[in-house]
Amino acid sequence: GQQLNQSPQSMFIQEGEDVSMNCTSSSIFNTWLWYKQEPGEGPVLLIALYKAGELTSNGRLTAQFGITRKDSFLNISASIPSDVGIYFCAGRGTREETSGSRLTFGEGTQLTVNP
Amino acid sequence: DAGVTQSPTHLIKTRGQQVTLRCSPKSGHDTVSWYQQALGQGPQFIFQYYEEEERQRGNFPDRFSGHQFPNYSSELNVNALLLGDSALYLCASSREEAYRGPTDTQYFGPGTRLTVL
CA B14, B24, A106, A81 torsion: positive or negative? Predict the structure, then answer.
């Protein structure tokens, strides 16, 4: 089955620092999504990427859809304490593929920001 | 604009019991997907419902079943509960019409925390 490898598993940074995390897959995806999850809540969509090579920003967040369609990265610039949480990447195939529209998630990156 | 809602928020059951979890999709959405998230893990796809039918299914046993109603809301049923079924159960909704284009995106509810003792 499809699996996503997300790294790093956890990060401890100082406020103001930049953060980078990435996901790689053994399979091709047509869509890459990045979610943030805080304790006791469901994942909240941060950025959606729909085309290979696409680079998209959402405020201090920037994400890219890899050219090979097997990877994606998320950068957070000038981190602040409210960036704390678990960040997940997720990939989606096409309806024609067995996986259809289901999302396959990475294991998550736990981000801690020290003030 | 109401987002995805789930009930109950927390549930405690014992082994062998049955449980029903409920989900109401975001306004304008007609497709519901269910995911299981074990502690420290990413969500795992259980199944997806569209037009009141199960359209896709992940690698979960038949103890996991579901239903979608004409108003697009959905239920997840788990029979013969095992200790390993303890997890956060997430519901996500999306629009089928959006899927035909490139911009299908799933929005998640807050989840139901199920504890099996």
Answer: negative
